[in-house]
Amino acid sequence: VFKGRYRVIKPFLQALVALRSGDDEAVGSAIDGLNGIAELDGGRLAHSFVGTLRALEQAGEGNYESALDFIDTAELRESWGRMTKSQVYDQTLSRYVKSEILFELGRYQESMRYSESLTVSRDFWGLAYLGPVRLRRAQTYALMGDRESAVAEYRRLLDLWSECDDDLVPAREEASVEM
Q1: Which DSSP string do the residues of the chain spell out, in sequence order?
Q2: Could you read off the pLDDT of 116-169 as tens digits, one per residue?
Q3: Distances 43 to 10, 15, 87, 104, 107 between C-alpha atoms, Å
Q4: Phi–psi pair at 35, nearest 5 degrees
């Protein structure tokens, strides 16, 4: 699945680490490198990664409309077989980011559609996002006035995080109070 793709995946992952640690220079350098790779071979994957990184940058600055424009450029259209074999082609991170951006824009129904794609049983790659997605879905249902669905999502989250790491305990307790 990753055949010949490490030269694209490595700078993307490095940029994600740099982005999370606030190293704007490293992020810019990685984006420049990905843009160079994309120009050389017309690489859709490199373009997709750049779109995701730019969306994350913009969302981090509170520029959600711009973030949405960038995340929309990140969409890959891949075969089912390739998508189910790789979180890169499954675009788990991009789907999560788009869901969060749509939530921040108050587009709750659309946000819920994207977050639902991370909760389905076939989505092994989405498991890392399942807790935050359940929490956000509960919050979204509550904002939309659907208390019953919100409580159901909070229950799912509490079941999932019944024995969570210490740093997740405050979110779990908040979910318990919200129920």
Answers
A1: --TTTHHHHHHHHHHHHHHHHT-HHHHHHHHHHHHHHHHHH--HHHHHHHHHHHHHHHHHTT-HHHHHHHHHHT-----HHHHHH-HHHHTHHHHHHHHHHHHHTT-HHHHHHHHHTTTSTT-GGGGGGHHHHHHHHHHHHHHTT-HHHHHHHHHHHHHHTTT--GGGHHHHHHHHHH-
A2: 988 875 566 678 889 999 999 999 999 999 999 999 999 999 999 999 999 999
A3: 14, 18, 18, 30, 31
A4: -60, -40
pTM of the model: 0.85
Residue located via tokens 């973030």: 67
* pLDDT digits 0-9 by tens, 12-62: 989 999 999 999 999 999 999 888 887 665 578 888 899 999 999 999 999
Give the Cα separation of 106 and 139 in Å (integer). Answer: 12
Residues 6+ apart with CB under 8 A from 39: none
